[in-house]
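Input record (Table S2, row 588):
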Amino acid sequence: MEDQVEEIKRKNDIVEVVGAYVTLKKLGRHHKGLCPFHSEKTPSFMVNEEMGLYKCFGCGAGGDVIKFLMEIEGIDFRDALERLAEKAGVKLVSRKREDGDARTKMLEVMNLAARYYHWMLTEGNAGREAREYLAKRNISAKLIETFNLGFSMQSWEGIVNYLVKKKGYKIDILEKVGLVSRKEGGGVYDKFRGRIMFPLQDSSGKVVGFTGRVLPSIAKEGEPKYLNSPETPLYHKSRMLYGFVQAKNAIREKKRVVLVEGQMDCISSFGAGVTETVAIGGTALTEDQVEILARLADQILLSMDADEAGNVAMKRSTEQAERRGLSVKVVQVKGGKDPDEIARNSPEKWKKMVESSVDIYEYVMERAFEKNDSKSIEGIKKITEEVVPFLSKIENNVVREVWSKRLAEKLGVDTKVVVSEMERVYSGKKVEFKKIGENSEDPNDSKIARLAKRFIGLLILKMKDSEVVSPWFSGLTVPGGEGKLISWLFKTNLNIGIEEMMKTMPDELKEIAGEAYMAEGENDKVGEKEVEESAVLLLREVIKMRKSELMDSMNRAKKDNDDAEEERIFGEMNELNKKESKLIAFLG
Ligand SMILES: [Zn+2]
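Output record (zinc ion complex):
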């Protein structure tokens, strides 16, 4: 498998793959364009063919061709690999998931079933009533096409006859994908009968299951209004995001996603022009779903029923989303039963509602104040009980502090009261607040890291200078991944090309190498002493850091009366000073 991944990466030209999404311009050894992952007017997105890597110097996105496809299409590693394999004509050796051939067969069956149901809705006689029903609900022919809607006739053997008798598939496979149910006395019958069919597609667009909504005129007592495919080797409810394939371009563009409950909500919202909508059912977001969304969006707009169940779902969804760094807002559904009804009756109203969504904490607080009397002791107690558990889950200290203060102000109490209540909810754990701005410096972007990256970029361009500068680094440690990469570069063969170099480079160092190299942009000719100068600037910073560490150890040794240690530190300090003077002399 490992080899196949490498083979697929090698056989796919990253410039070509990225070029299908981004207009790239050749710039020296690299290609440059507008980043597809954040909005910008001047290009800071670079692609390098030799290294097979991309890097955005605006938002930090970066990686290889597989990662690019995953991020831009919102698909998982396996799907990205499959697509690239197909493109390069590599036959993937199946992995543990599900036996490759069986999986392909099952997808084939589901695809055919979707087409059968779709034909029945759009052209079949049996679909006339369903057509009329959808037309009455303002579901246009275009939406029916976009979402590939269908109709299952009121028959026990519609899909069975089509797939088994006409297409020659085995009954076993129909059962495996959940299209049929087994009769008690043997034999099978259609699971979906007399229902509008919503194909459930995975994030790469393959049909993996169905939801069927019963036609009101033929609804029978005791039958569910909505019927879903069971869990199958293809369909996993926890991973399903209905409408994701249709919405993903808009999600990527707007960097946000509107979450609704049902399929009809989703389609109507899409039809109203809010094309970044997906449906998750009445439950909370799962980790898998957040994972898929987080590849494309920064923000989630929840639009769920405002009942108790909806509230619980909202809270859980918020936790999941925030853990993955997404911010959460709430679309307040007013003046209609659900998003479907509002979007159908007044697309403009629904759009406005989405645009005026409020921060999740604002929403929770407002609701609590609406329901309870904040002037009475009892009311204050109820509000606190409702809001504090929500706030105490906020992982970001700054955000938590801001909202705790807001709550205290609204209640007219001291912030300390809210904090102590929070500590109680937190089962006695101490709640710490950090000052805004504290620790705001990104450790990855320290001065040393920046200088090290600059040095690496120049060194890759002019590897033969490595002979001159590598001895200067002896006895000094450049911290982090940059340090590891520099040591690796010093040890590697000076005469190999970049492509060859990338083949032997440890994976964890590749991204740093790519970033450093691409940061050089058009810089093609490295000046006479440029590598050396950059090494000196870096080493001076490294020495400065080491000296300050030594000062600390020195103070400790003095306190402990450890003369030997003091002596040793003194010796090292002397060495460092000598080295430093030499470096300074070099700079002239
Ligand atoms: Zn970017």
